[in-house]
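Researcher: I'd like a structural prediction for the single chain below. Treat it as a standalone chain; there are no partners to consider.
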Amino acid sequence: MKRILKWFTVLTIIAPISVGTVMGYAKGWPSNWKEANWASSGLLPLASGDKPATVIILASRTGRWKGIFAEHMSIILKPEAAAEWTRYDVVGWGNPVRKNSFAPDAFWYGNTPRIIYRLEGAKAAALIPNIEASIAAYPYQARGTYHVWPGPNSNTFVSWVVRHTNGLDTELPPVAVGKDWLGWVGYDVAPSKTGYSFSVAGVIGGTVALREGVELHLLGSTIGIDPDDLAIKLPALGKLSLL
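Model: Treating it as a single chain, here is the predicted structure.
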């Protein structure tokens, strides 16, 4: 049993974090937030030229050494024929929930965002008011309620909105540290709405769901097997899929 535990620790924790650390240091990062690039990445078109209602969730690596382990998620909304995108983030200073504090597709600490969820058309139009209602009801909006680890943080915010909005069903990135923070002892539907998650203080927990597969949440990181996508999930490296 000790040998199995040893190799489990080496292969699923030590090795991926080591690889992620080497990759992070090789890439480098700005010395502080003032020197980082927060401009538009060009990922999204002008809202005025993109007519359908759209719901998007973006993810990009966080800043400095935290980027080895974690991504930051944002919610982007655009009603049909709207002239502007609307972006929601949670940040670690002042009042946590921010609206349009950054360009809709901004680099995050200089890291390029990617789309992890996109819905367009009539379904998106019907969903936007419900998403905005969930954002307004997010329970950790007061100054001082943000905690970078284990949560509630920026990823807790996006995960909470997804879990509490009917029709918004998606698997979230395994390296979105804080997405599985459910209070000191919590139990809730998985973000994909195909299973359930539990958590103890965001330090240890798990998810069993058709889309997410089987996940162990340890210190905010995810170790898992996802048969639906023929994938494994590892700290620092995220989801590695054969599909």
